Input
Amino acid sequence: MTRLTAAFANARQQGRAALVTFVTAGDGDTAAILDALVAGGADVIELGMPFTDPMADGPAIQAANLRSLAKGTRTADVLAIASAFRQRHPHVPLVLMGYANTMTRPEPATFAKAAADVGIDGAIIVDIPPEEADEVAPFGDHGIAAIRLATPTTDTSRLPAVLGGASGFVYYVSVAGITGKQQAAQHSIDDAVARLKAATDLPIAVGFGVRTPEQAAAIGRLADGVVVGSAIIDIIADKGADAPPAVRNYIESLSAAIAVARKELAA
Amino acid sequence: MNAPNSYRTLPDERGHFGQFGGRYVAETLMPLILDLEREYRAAKADPAFQAQFDDLMKNYVGRPSPLYFAERLTRHYGGAKIYFKREELNHTGAHKINNCIGQILLAIRMGKKRIIAETGAGQHGVATATVCARFGLPCTIFMGAKDIERQQPNVFRMKLLGAEVRPVTSGSQSLKDAMNEALRDWVATVEDTFYIIGTAAGPHPYPELVRDFQSVIGIESRAQMLEAEGRLPDLLLAAVGGGSNAIGLFHPFLDDPEVAMIGVEAAGRGVDTGEHAASLTGGAPGILHGNKTYLLQDEDGQITEAHSISAGLDYPGIGPEHSWLHESGRVEYLPVTDQQALDAFQLCCKLEGIIPALESSHALAALESKAREMSSDKIILVNVSGRGDKDIYTVAEAMGTTI
Output
């Protein structure tokens, strides 16, 4: 069983959704922030690969990308962060998230091998739709899960293409838009999760615009995972060097809400 | 690479030109892009669509644009006979309008209610604002804050035409960031918004449809040249930023082996200085803005900033079909510096009474070596893609004059 599969199975066994958290590599003291995420109860970590042109991201994550690059973060640094994390946390799944151009350098196969070697479990590549999946076929060859995105515009006829070749989990982007913006109506999320669950056995994680423990709990009642990104980035931008304890507190509030969400529903 | 039987059959059904092109977009946009492709195929096969396009080209844009024998420039170089394709005489002053007419008709056909576009120098923004005014659609133009500063006349033109000009303050605040921001808007408004991309780049089917709409340049040139000289030209010259005026001129000639072609890239302060916009000469293949193509980037795949005195060429990428034509060897790509372009700009003003755009001046600058080395029985056709009125402030500054 892969680390990703185990993390979702473990959460399910505990009667809750998995908490999936995002941080941009090289923005702040990433090692300390990663430890804070784990200590706060994150089940899966998405490590953002900084990119000069983050086209699908809102202002918060754009700024995080630029802060990281301005500090001189290179691909080798991102992989070193991942490698050190894997030493400290042998069982917590770590997923790279970012854009195709930095994850296919110098060649897709070379990058995939380097990522696998430092213990990366999966990759979310925003600008690789199923139509271009051949580009990153070497990721699968190296045991890196291809985490696909489904969106409100992914209609029933496209769903098989999106889910074919998907592994790890499916990331449902609940809002047609960029990261960090408004949240979708809960009923539309519930409908989409139900539709996706009918089409795949992979866990369904829902993200985009999730900020409060209440929102996380509402999504966690039905979905297998709740993804939080921009809200964490906002804390890092706001607190600077003091971010890790604040991040930990915030993550604890989310995981506490998610832990009881389904029990409240049953009661 | 073996020469293909035809250079005019691409892209393939997945939108690839060899290894280049494709559809590297967020999943949210994929269904829309597939829709656009279906709609474009239907429009292409619809005589009514073609008839409306042709009518607007003739009566609104003012086509065909003339083919002009540049007699004094020819005499100046003392070599090959030089002809201009006068795209600068089009309505709005550049070739950009050809594409905008085509895309707005597609947008209307698809029932879209709002138009967005990116612009660098403002020429594509003006052309987009123009067609939006003509068809009564609201329009938002994304423009880098730095470009807004250096292109005030075009900003005011867009506003006069009723467009909202939205300053982009992210990243390098120029064309690539305007494109990022347009994509961010689009991903949130796909239901009712059509994105009019200004060059033959971006996700499939844009490179193909922009090329097809711009091919009017090459189709006209071919017929006009046969009429004027009874034969095809020996060499085509066109400036390449994203590459829409160049591919529009080149494409109808690609299968004429006797016609050589040169795409002229902006070498800025010189390719070896690192301050340039020559993606083919100084870049490497990568993925940005929905397509795989040559990009200016570092070894980690981070995009590096482009530089050119011409805002319209100031982009770190190039249309995917040019990347393919470069690798296949069918078209040669040549870098020309800011200074060479400025010299050609002034020479054209003085000898021909035509103020060319700085973009087009890059193509004209290639005459310096090419026209001289080719004999007087040879013919060169240069695409004068736009007029240079917009550039007079930039040129004045470079010449150390104030207006």
